[in-house]
Amino acid sequence: MTYVNRPHAGGGGHEDTASHRGGNVESDAAWSQEEEVEKAFLIAVETGQGEGWTGEESLLELASLVETAGAEVVGSMWQHRVAPDPATYLGKGKAQELVQAESVLGFNLLVADDELSPKQQRALEGLLEIKVLDRSGIILDIFAQRARTHEGRLQVELARLEYQLPRLTRLWTHLSRMGGGIGTRRGPGETQLETDRRVLRARIKKLKKRVNEVSWRRATASRRRTRGLLPSIAIVGYTNAGKSTLLNALVGERVALTEDKLFATLDPTTRRVTLADGQVAVVSDTVGFIHKLPHQLIDAFRATLEEVTRADALVVVVDQTDPRAREHLETVWAVLEDLGAGQIPRVIALNKIDKMAVETTATDGHEPRPTPSVPGWVAREGVRVSARTGEGLTELRQRLSAVLSELWVEVDAAVSYAAGELIARVRERGSVQLEYQDTGVRVRGRVPPAMATEINDAARSLARSLRQRAEE
Fold first, then answer.
1. Beta bridge partners of 233
2. Among 73, 240, 333, 365, which residue is least crowded by beta carbons within 10 Å?
């Protein structure tokens, strides 16, 4: 069995390849409870159905996830197959090569790029006698580290327990630390495994109730914003695309945590942002999406992700410097469809133009042009921005105002000067021109339907008042 350096992004790959790479990770970043950094070996099966991802490319992203979780990646292996082996994920021959790799590299953690069935996980654990996780398990662990708010921790714990429930084995320790007393004691003839499953199911039921309460509170807050007639915009995109940095740039101050790490943001941040012509909107930063995002996370974080489904418009942030930008966009579209947000109006922000590589042609005399890493229609319709330097933000604000305006209705009416509070909200929320006349203020432009109703009511009230004066 041959070991070579792990290929970098853009490098070639070949079938049934194993690789070795050293690295240093501080032990205090370890994602496990052990003091020593775990040494991880990664495996993948390439079926040719990865929506543009090769096995090697998917493993490179998995390596970033594992390192973000705090482990050290010491090697990887991928195999071309029509489908993963139902028993051992890799074929039996490759599974035996894992034993050889373990003896050479001394890894104590195996991570599969696809979600393993409980049967596959148990088979690999029995073969290697080490901990076996999959991409979903790693992502869930990162989320557990990143969650800062009570709401975030609730949702992460729910996702982890639903993931763990079918994977309980005799290797598990007793779960009594999760709670004791009535309802948690072992029944007559009940095995430890059965007890642990019962404890988990009870905890899951309790967490679902609490997460539903979170969803209700968010819906209530959203209704308050609707009554305040502030449009809502959700910033979405692939993890580490620069969503939080963009929110900070739009707000004009640091309101969201920004780190050059996967899933730096779990807990959403919402702030008022001024768009074009003084229009104000509420903008929310959201958790990043990723290739093969665990369904447990989508379900558990649905309360948080409902910020996306309730938004009037979306800003889809794309890191155009990433060679996988096209595939990242496909992942974003798929998750938005899964959430029921596929039809919400959107503006695409092609981020990091300050880092964009350019092509130059010495013979054509044209200006340098960006190297395309996104579909042509995205390059044409997207707004090129730099969340770091602020370049392109004026155009982004204008595009968002235009998108919101298309959702509104035309008004042309005069209201009384006494309707000062309404006029202030119209100026803040709508895209209008105000003409100050002797008898009132003429409002012309586009406003949300609910606000148009208010304006028309105020206009009728003014007209009645003027008629009454004329009759006196």
1. 283, 313
2. 365
